[in-house]
Protein: DinB family protein
Organism: Ohtaekwangia kribbensis
Amino acid sequence: MSDKREVWLRGPVPEIPQLLQPVAHALLQAAEEVESAIASFNTIYLWDKPYGMASVGFHLQHLSGVLDRLFTYARGESLSTLQLKALQQEGTAPTPSATATELVTAFHEQVQRALKQLQETDEKRLTEHRAVGRQQLSSTVLGLLFHAAEHTQRHVGQLLVTVKVAGNQQA
């Protein structure tokens, strides 16, 4: 029997530093919610924009992309050319045959990379300065990691609404 409690109520995530447990919980909760939402979604509507809303495909790409970008900044790195190109292409099918399953798998893989980075993050370095974006805006390792968790949760909420609206629009 699977545990139906929210991830944060299931206890600590193994190997994640104590101060970063909320980040790990939020990312794992997001992964579960995405999986559940897409399981019943008619993926023929993956790139449709119901009532002018962003498409389900966009949301799935953005979830992966924003985690990648924010965790890159948390490592103290600049975005690569590939990351900038992916950002520009969010909302566009990566291939004509791209499926929701592929996009969900990409998100799950990004969550796993993020969890690995959390495992390797030294809590003593959480307050170190990090520059964000072309304007080199000021943040910290902790600020970026928590923003990644918060942004992911907020965007999953938007995805859930879009899935519901897309399903109702087609009914």
